[in-house]
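Hey team,

Sharing the Beta-1,4-N-acetylgalactosaminyltransferase bre-4 run so nobody has to redo it. Sequence (269 residues) first:
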Amino acid sequence: MIASDSRKENEKAFISRMSTMGLRPGGNYKPENCVSRNKVALIVPYRRRKFHLKIFLRYMHPFLQRQQLQYVVFIIEQSNGSPFNRGMLMNIGYQEALKLGSFECFIFHDVDLLPEDDRNPYTCPEKGRPRQMAYSIDIFDYRQTPKQHLGGVSAFTVNDFQLINGFSNLFWGWGSEDDDLYRRVLHHNLTVTRITDDEPSFGNIVRYRMIDHRKENSNPDRDLLLNGWKYRLVNDGLSNLSYIKLHVKLTPLFTHVLADIRQNPLTSG
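Structure output:
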């Protein structure tokens, strides 16, 4: 009981401190002493990761504020009933964010990844050049992931994400929705960039730490779906996104979107 009360007091103290720093309801922040060149929507897919979410929010708000960014944090939660669908939740976050405000870019961010260095830019990428960010992670001994990897944390301008029709909606369970995304990017003649492209020594700047978690169940159809990526470009993504919005709430630290998505013949391949 004492420990629980202490946690609640710590949470209240953090919310109060963030409010003093200028964080508004919905996880909405705008620097007071400068005009930010970037207005960023941070989209975080989520389900049953309360411990991770608390760590993520406590870490990321100060991190983003030190970069003097104008940003909003969106937590897109999937209700129970179907296997987790990361790609669809990213698409939902994109659409719901644009209903609430205008943004120059979107950073799609897993809840279990934390950037280690303040110099890792969470600014908007150039048009036509989406940025892969989480490719050097502690659990892989910071070895850089293959060039075709576009998962974990990635940044897109609004126009580029719309152009590629967002993520596929068909990847239920863990795996390959980011590989599908990479193929969409290349198909539309966009260039995936990394901070190390022009300066290899910056590799130490873009390191991430992964919070321990239980591995999700793999998608048994992921290889078959991935092989057919080109045939689904137009009709699978933002263009056919279907979900039931249960609520949108502005909490002190984030905008919470709760959505019900169902696996049915139209969204299961």
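The mean pLDDT is 89.

Ping me if you want the raw files.
A.
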